[in-house]
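Review box. Two proteins, two foldings.
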Amino acid sequence: MSGSRPALGKASPIFTAMGKRLVAEGCGLYKEGPGPKVGEADVDSYEKFHRKLEYTSSAAKWLPGPASWSKLKVPNV
């Protein structure tokens, strides 16, 4: 996981659960999905969720941090 968008291409059921929560929060930017493999739509959706939380600058960028993850309330899978 390197670069500005770590986790792209990684797969796990937790990413499907994350995507469903992003959709429920009105932040889903998916054309299809969400699914288990992290793609650009996941990153863009999570960054939209960060903006909804009024995060700015680098705090509004992908990768989820513990505070925003907790606020998203992703269920354990």
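Next protein.
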Amino acid sequence: ALAHLHERCIVHRDVKADNLLLAHEGRDAPVKLADFGVARRWPQGEHMHTACGTPFYVAPEVVAGDGYSGGLSDCWSAGVVLYIMLCGFPPFAEDDMALLFALIMTGTYNFPSPSWDSVSAGAKEAVRMLLTVDVSKRPSPHEFLSRCKWASGAAPDVCLDVRSELAKTQSLARAGRKVVLLQRLLPKPR
């Protein structure tokens, strides 16, 4: 979906687990990307400056506030989604927004046991590729799909309690959105 959008010079800017929908029930259901409320047309080479998205999924370059190339920020967010899909909880989850953003800016996360014990090394490498802080080293959707070989083979049937974990992060995300809104309303320091 991201490759399709980026080919058409559209950046989503709010890729997150809540915005992924199944087309129908069943193991082979196609996944649809939804909620284009903050999506924007993005001519190649142009930098964006609007900080938007959900705090737990936002890329380091968006947090930095110095302008960013939108497509690769979507790829970071896809890495957060992939992390959640593999273990059931986000890589960056802090109540304190300053600490959350510090973890994101430094790419500080891990693969804790036992949640990651049954996840393949290839799947972990796929997460690492997308959660690369250095934008110049983060793959585009096409690069990711061509370099990522971890999806071959059967995945173990592991039941993850994703709903309760996402409910926790959703309440934190609401608080984070309030912080971002307040930051926008306050005058810029001189």
